[in-house]
Amino acid sequence: MVTPTAAFPEFNPAVPAAQGSQGSSAVRSIQGEQADRAGVVRPRASDDDVDAYVDGVSDEVLACRERGRHLFPTIRQAGIHFTGVDETGLLLRRLRCGCCRLAVKVEKWEGAQVGGRTRFRRVASNLEYRVGVDGEQYLAPAGSGFMTPRQVGDSVASKALSGSTLAAVQRAAAEAAVSEAAVSDEQ
Ligand SMILES: [Zn+2]
């Protein structure tokens, strides 16, 4: 049985698209998802947990985390191929994220005779996560709360800037503003 994930509400009609300030862009770890029930405050991952996660995953996984969504091929790109039938007769279709390669969208489709022809429609969609060849995991380890794309971006940025003092970063930003103004004056 596939556990419906709330990480991508657009694939899970049971979850309202807008939930608090997170909206539909929130990516949650499975721990957060399991705690995701009406009226329950979902635990947010700490900065330390996010930093540790960011250190342990590939750039491709970070890209999906920072983007807040996976890059699944379109039907035209992937074609429409079914690779199983569930216990209720629905057709199963699986799509792997072309970026992180760890997320697999499992769709259920039904076909119905309408008039003289068969009409197909997607009736359900869930995400599954594979473990990478080197043991890489998309979801944060148990005990972490869910991570938002913003938290992941903040962590990546902080690591990239970790060799500089705040004063140096501010100075460089001010200098960049001056040179940008000079460039636009020339145009
Ligand atoms: Zn992905």
Explain the layout of strands and helices:
Layout: H1 30-34, H2 47-56, H3 59-67, H4 75-78, E1 84-85, E2 91-96, E3 103-114, E4 117-129, H5 149-160, H6 166-186
Antiparallel strand pairs: 1-2, 2-3, 3-4
Helix pairs in contact: 2-5, 3-5
Bound molecules: zinc ion.
Question: Quick summary of this structure?
Answer:
With 187 residues, the protein is of the alpha+beta class. It contains 6 helices and 4 strands. Helix content is 33%, strand content 18%.
Defining key terms:
binds zinc ion, disordered N terminus, 187 residues, alpha+beta, 4 strands, 6 helices, single chain
Could you walk me through the main structural features you see in this protein, from its secondary elements to its overall organization?
By secondary structure, this protein is of the alpha+beta class. The protein has one domain. 33% of the residues lie in helices and 18% in strands. It has six helices and four strands. It has a four-stranded antiparallel beta sheet, with no helix packed on it. Strand 1 and strand 2 form a beta hairpin. The chain is elongated and about 70 Å long. It starts with 29 loop residues before the first helix and ends with a helix. The N terminus is likely disordered. It binds zinc ion. The site of zinc ion has 6 residues, from loops.
